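Entry:
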Amino acid sequence: MKTLLVLRHAKSSWNDSALGDHERPLNERGRRDGPRMGQLMREFGLIPDVVISSDAVRAQLTAQAVAEAAGYAGEILADPRLYIASPGDILSLLRTAPENAETILIVGHNPGLEELIEQLTGERQDLPTAALAQIVLAIDRWRDLKLSSRGTLAGHWRPKELT
C-alpha cells in the first residue's frame, strides 16, 4: 500500500499585474493556510517521505510552509511537470518516485488535481486552495501506478473547515 497526499497550492496574490501566472506569490490568506494544513498533517501523522511541488512560486511557497509545519525534514523537489498537469502527467511523474517512499505529497494546481482524485478514487471532490486529499493506493510500487489504478479517499480537508 502507498499513500498519496494531494495538496492544491494556497491562495495566491493577484496584486502585481506585471507578474505572470507562474510567478504569483501567496496572499495573506495563503501564507496563513499553508502552515495550518501542515499542522493538520502533523496531527494526523501524515508526514510524507517525499514532497514534490510544481515549480510555480505559489506552489513552492505552499510546499515550504506545509513541510515546515508538518515536521518534514527532507528536500522539496520542484518539478515543472506539475505546473498545470493532467492526471496522466502526474501519474507519469509519480511512477518515477523512489520505491521506498510510502507516502508522497504532491503540491500542484487545478483542474488536474481534482481530476486526479476523481480518476483514482471515483469520487468527485472540490479542492479549493490549500485543500488536502489523502488517497490510499493498493499498489506496492509507484511504478505500477496507472490511470486505471483505484484508491480509497481516506481523508479530505479544507482550510476553512479547520478550527
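The helical segments are 28-43, 57-70, 87-94, 112-121.
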